[in-house]
Design goal:
The protein is α/β, with parallel strands linked by helices. It has two domains: about 45 residues; about 90 residues, Cupredoxins -  blue copper proteins (Immunoglobulin-like), CATH 2.60.40.420. It has one helix and eight strands, in the order αββββββββ. A hairpin with a 2-residue loop joins strand 1 and strand 2.
Amino acid sequence: MEDNQPINLPPQYPPPELANRRKPILLFAFLVAVILLIVGFIMLRAGENSSNQKSSPQAYTVEITNDGFVPQTLDVPTGSTVKWVNKTNDPYRIAANPQPSHSSFPALDSKDPIGPDGEYSFKFTKTGTIVYNNHFKPTENNGEIRVEDANN
């Protein structure tokens, strides 16, 4: 055997020109995977934080319309204030059921009529479900306020 004969080596896989093209693609795929993991982790942590947050008291509005109270049912945390706004041409008197005693929640009673574009506000400090209506027409429409403990 002569020393000057070329040695036949098996072809290199992948060929160098292909290997060089794959490096940027692999780097890009790796960066996308890392970004997706980071975003997923952040979203997971945000979900945990929001589920642990307590509801804080806020101001809510219920519109009095010709079709009833909008919204008809409202969930609020303790300490929240609900304002009823009369969008009709008729007077309304917000009062807890049952009529005429309002005994289920006597504190919720506007006493005076709420005229067109008038308002009545009430701050809910105790938990419970209060069903209310228009004292002048108690059988027409009912609304409901569900008050939950803001600390739970």
